[in-house]
Amino acid sequence: MKKIFSILLIIVFFNVSASSTDNKESLPFGLVDNHLNLVYSASNIRKTEIFYGEILNLKRISDVILPGNRVMLRYIAGESELKFIINENQKPKKSLGMLEAKGIRQLSILLPDSKRLKIIDKLNSNDIKISEVIYSDKKSNSPNRFLINDFDGNRVEILFSKNDLFNSTSNQTHIGIGVSSIDEMADFLYNILDFNPVITEGMTHSYDMGLTRVKFWETPYSSPSNTGMPHEILGMSMIQFIITDVRAVRDVIVSRGGKIHTEPYLIGDLAIIMIVEGPDGILFEFGAAL
């Protein structure tokens, strides 16, 4: 049963709805790019560079120096930016499984199969365990699937595909969330944040925002939460929208019944930021460059 469920997850990864948002004109909130980003709190610069830069070989773009001499490392996964705010006061804790906690739980990215063996070698040389592997049929284009944890315990799903399939789906990024109520999260994503529903039945539901898919599943009410601002927790902290007018978006979200976690504020002379709080305290950041 577990293997069947895992294979279904792979199929779901490539099941892009024809009604998904494809052009900038139809994006809500004045979204600048056709994707969302993922903000992390990371405990160590060098370990972040090793895992995402050297092992996964993701493209690195310029760092951002934040107020207080904090640094943000940035990598590209598909079209999305992975933004790592370094917080060396936070120490890694024991990793919890996919169904054992509420919050942003998993990043899923697609890589070409030609990188698979090299990544395995680098994982082994850095003593990183592959927690689950599914090998595709040799006659099929279905990707191999690895589940691994980075040095801070963040769960990463890597799907390797043959070149023809990779070329048509390589810009997709999936973010997985554990929630206490699927219905509450579905209502929040659809009615407040304008996500496009794609899969609304079964154990895992999926909603799209451009080239980013948010997948979510229920966890027990008694399960712990790993939610909060980057200075409050370690790990995947916020899903980020880059927009043109934060204050206008604030008014829209409030009119729809959304909860503002942090009112719009300035990050030095870089940007204006607002945080919206979803079910279970899961945070969505809206930012606009100054």
The helix content is 10-25%
CATH superfamily: 2,3-Dihydroxybiphenyl 1,2-Dioxygenase, domain 1
| Basic shape | globular
Question: Which structural class best describes the helix and strand composition?
Answer: alpha+beta
Mean pLDDT: 86
> Biggest sheet, strands in spatial order?
2-3-4-1-13-16-15-14
CATH architecture: Roll
CATH class: Alpha Beta
Please tell me about this protein's structure:
The protein has helices spanning 2-13, 45-55, 116-125, 163-169, 182-192, 246-255; strands at residues 37-42, 59-66, 70-77, 80-86, 103-112, 130-134, 144-149, 155-161, 173-179, 196-199, 205-209, 212-218, 235-242, 259-267, 271-277, 283-289. By secondary structure, it is of the alpha+beta class. It has a single domain, classed as 2,3-Dihydroxybiphenyl 1,2-Dioxygenase, domain 1 (Roll), CATH 3.10.180. The strands form 2 sheets. An 8-stranded mixed beta sheet has the order 2-3-4-1-13-16-15-14, covered by helices on one side. Strands 6-7-8-5-9-12-11-10 form an 8-stranded mixed beta sheet, sandwiched between helices. A hairpin with a 2-residue loop joins strand 11 and strand 12 (212-218). The longest helix is centred in the first third of the chain and has 12 residues, at 2-13.
Structure, briefly:
It contains six helices and 16 strands. It is of the alpha+beta class and 290 residues long.
Keywords:
21% helix; globular; 38% strand; alpha+beta; 16 strands; 8-stranded mixed β-sheet; 2,3-Dihydroxybiphenyl 1,2-Dioxygenase, domain 1; 290 residues
